[in-house]
């Protein structure tokens, strides 16, 4: 009897998918039209699609691929809205793609603060510490999703930055280049950390930095990207910096010229890049500084894994695990960054925790306050700006972190122990990838406060 039951179960499991497939209708895509891309070339859009002309798909497969393709297109810095519709006639499907392009030419006029984040700048209460940036940004250059950026910065920092990104050599845009040149001079510099607080000194020409980068990009699939970056760097710091901290660069050096190589891998299967709600992403970076004999060698390993889940129509969950490690024995305050730079714990915005290894886990529960809405600003005569989307989310979050610093070079009372924080916040999301975060956080030290973050 048991054998008969097992046989019936196996037949049932194998037969059900067959019945489902037989009942599902298959169609052939015989028409694919793109409308509204006044500047963007068709092939830029076609490269982001997960389906193509003459593909044979089931109706459920087509619906899923349309969702994935729309998400891929919205991740590009080219469109504010993308609509993909289809019409089935018999055994054939007609696809229409309607992207709404952004404004691509921007003057770079901004007033920014030189600190790690906005909250640190407000805490200093020295509102004269600002940088003024002038320049030009041209997105979607030649209609090929290339970008050219030229910046000049004056104030506490003097900087020139030139970036040319999106140079691809093949029609499928799998192999590309990014070129960057930057020159920086600062009259104020954080030379060390004491009790998790950055110590700053003001000096004429406190630091000068020049950097040239060539980055090769390889994109074997729509959700995976590899980058190999080669750079040449020149760094000079004021003598007083080294007197205050001999390990600012390394071993009391005031100058350093070196080559560096950096490999990055990114797997991105999120629904959006600016404010994802579903999907997952993984990144890995291996950085090696000092390829020539005359420079010290420093290795940096960095990785992150993020997951985004929709729990129901109102609630979303996100979790991000991040880690950075410096296997090298060399001590260098300038090149070894701890929590408070690339990895942040909410509620610890005022602190930098330096160490050899550090990791964090950030978890957030989001509730939809205002679902995505589209409004028209009829008083604006420009089509690129008079249609916008916005949404709002209420957050409850909790973060964990750990920094290992066995030598305790910077008298930290937060390293070598579990750190935690939590709080509530509101996120406001709108077009052109803009996000405003208002957060009320508390941390392990029983400190609490309101923090503002921009993106």
Short description:
It is built from 5 helices and 20 strands. It has helices spanning 2-23, 42-46, 59-75, 118-124, 239-244, and strands at residues 26-34, 56-58, 79-89, 92-101, 105-112, 131-141, 146-155, 157-168, 175-194, 197-221, 224-237, 255-268, 279-289, 298-310, 315-325, 357-376, 387-404, 418-430, 434-443, 448-454. The longest helix has 22 residues, at 2-23.
What structural keywords apply?
globular; 16-stranded antiparallel beta sheet; 55% strand; 455 residues; 20 strands
Secondary structure elements and pairings:
Elements lengths: L1 H22 L2 E9 L7 H5 L9 E3 H17 L3 E11 L2 E10 L3 E8 L5 H7 L6 E11 L4 E10 L1 E12 L6 E20 L2 E25 L2 E14 L1 H6 L10 E14 L10 E11 L8 E13 L4 E11 L31 E20 L10 E18 L13 E13 L3 E10 L4 E7 L1
Parallel strand pairs: 1-4
Antiparallel strand pairs: 1-2, 3-4, 5-6, 6-7, 7-8, 8-9, 9-10, 10-11, 11-12, 12-13, 13-14, 14-15, 15-16, 16-17, 17-18, 18-19, 19-20
How does this model look, in words?
By secondary structure, the protein is mainly β. The protein is built from 5 helices and 20 strands. It has helices spanning 2-23, 42-46, 59-75, 118-124, 239-244; strands at 26-34, 56-58, 79-89, 92-101, 105-112, 131-141, 146-155, 157-168, 175-194, 197-221, 224-237, 255-268, 279-289, 298-310, 315-325, 357-376, 387-404, 418-430, 434-443, 448-454. The strands form 2 sheets. The protein has a 16-stranded antiparallel beta sheet with strand order 5-6-7-8-9-10-11-12-13-14-15-16-17-18-19-20. The protein has a 4-stranded mixed beta sheet with strand order 2-1-4-3, covered by helices on one side. It is globular, with a radius of gyration of 26 Å. The model is unreliable at 4-22 (pLDDT under 50).
């Amino acid at each position: 009897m048991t054998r008969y039951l097992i046989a019936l179960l196996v037949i049932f499991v194998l037969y059900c998918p067959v019945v489902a497939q037989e009942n599902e209708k298959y169609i052939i895509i015989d028409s694919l039209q793109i409308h509204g891309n006044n500047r963007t070339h068709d092939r830029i859009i076609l490269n982001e699609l997960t389906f193509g002309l003459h593909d044979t798909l089931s109706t459920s497969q087509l619906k899923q691929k349309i969702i994935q393709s729309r998400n891929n297109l919205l991740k590009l810095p080219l469109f504010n809205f993308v609509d993909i519709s289809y019409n089935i006639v018999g055994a054939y499907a007609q696809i229409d793609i309607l992207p709404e392009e952004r404004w691509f030419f921007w003057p770079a006029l901004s007033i920014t603060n030189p600190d790690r984040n906005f909250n640190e700048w407000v805490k200093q209460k020295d509102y004269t510490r600002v940088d003024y940036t002038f320049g030009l940004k041209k997105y979607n250059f030649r209609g090929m999703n290339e970008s050219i950026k030229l910046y000049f910065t004056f104030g506490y920092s003097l900087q020139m930055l030139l970036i040319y990104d999106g140079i691809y050599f093949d029609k499928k845009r799998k192999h590309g280049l990014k070129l960057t040149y930057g020159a920086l001079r600062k009259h104020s510099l954080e030379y060390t950390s004491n009790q998790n607080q950055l110590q700053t000194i003001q000096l004429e020409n406190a630091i000068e930095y020049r950097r040239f980068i060539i980055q090769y990009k390889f994109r074997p699939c729509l959700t995976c990207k590899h980058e190999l970056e080669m750079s040449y760097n020149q760094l000079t710091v004021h003598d007083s910096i080294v007197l205050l901290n001999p390990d600012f660069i390394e071993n009391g050096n005031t100058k350093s010229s070196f080559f560096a190589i950096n490999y990055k891998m990114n797997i991105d299967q999120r629904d959006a890049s600016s404010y994802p709600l579903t999907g997952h992403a993984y990144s890995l970076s291996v950085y090696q500084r000092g390829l020539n004999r005359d420079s010290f060698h420093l290795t940096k390993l960095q990785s992150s894994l993020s997951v985004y889940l929709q729990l129901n129509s109102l609630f979303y969950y996100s979790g991000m695990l991040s880690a950075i490690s410096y296997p090298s024995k060399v001590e260098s305050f300038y090149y070894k960054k701890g929590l408070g730079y690339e990895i942040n714990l909410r509620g610890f915005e005022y602190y930098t925790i330096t160490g050899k290894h550090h990791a964090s886990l950030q978890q957030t529960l989001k509730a939809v306050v205002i679902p995505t809405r589209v409004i028209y600003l009829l008083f604006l005569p420009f089509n690129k700006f008079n249609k916008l989307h916005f949404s709002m989310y209420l957050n409850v979050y909790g973060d964990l972190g750990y920094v290992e610093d066995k030598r305790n070079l910077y008298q930290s009372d937060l390293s070598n122990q579990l750190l935690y924080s939590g709080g509530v916040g509101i996120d406001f999301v709108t077009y052109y990838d803009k996000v405003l975060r208002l957060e009320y956080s508390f941390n392990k030290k029983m400190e609490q406060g309101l923090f503002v973050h921009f993106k």
